[in-house]
Amino acid sequence: MKFKLLGLKTVIFGVVLVAGIAIGMLGIHYKTANAGNNYVFPKNQYGQTYGSSADATSYETEPDLIAAKGVNGTKGYVKRTDLEQPFPKTPQEAVALMKQNSAHPTREIPLYDIDGKTVIGKFIVGGGTAKEFKTLEEMQKFENEQQISPN
Asked: For residue 63, what pLDDT is reported?
């Protein structure tokens, strides 16, 4: 009888433990899946979103106009579509694109005012060195030191 009672308690404990872990995992998944999705980029008069790409949770959620510091320190926005490069469909296209990028490591794109239409300067894509930030605060400190602002 004592063995059966201990076995029943063990089974109940095990079921409760597994249920608790499952509920906890669902809660963690929900929280991480929705983390950062609350930020809504403002829109200009033409309906384009604008702001810092640091506020985006993924490439797909980046604004249409990304805050940038252009040549001579001009603050403005670059179009996300201007930053994109074609994705190679074949290995041969990939090699050709790599050769093209090696021959011309930088390219110039327009720097726009907040309306996304008025060109206020130039922005150079490529040719620089990448800086990796471990935290959002570290990146914001760097932006402040460089006087980069989304507005």
From this structure: 93
Q: What is the pTM of this model?
A: 0.57
- How does strand 50-51 pair with strand 119-125? unpaired
The Cα–Cα gap between 108 and 89 comes to 25
Tokens for 5, please give them.
Answer: 């009672």
Question: Distances in Å between the alpha carbon of 9 and those of 1, 2, 14, 15, 119?
Answer: 12, 11, 8, 10, 73
Quick one: what percent of the chain has pLDDT higher than 90? Answer: 25
pLDDT band at 30 (very low <50, low <70, confident <90, very high): very low
DSSP letters, 75-106, are: EEEEEHHHH--PPPSSHHHHHHHHHHHHH---
Cα atoms in the 13 Å half-sphere on the side-chain side of 136 = 7
| Rounded CA separation 124/142 (Å) | 19
The full set of domain ranges for the chain reads 1-35, 50-146
Arithmetic mean of pLDDT, 58-86: 89
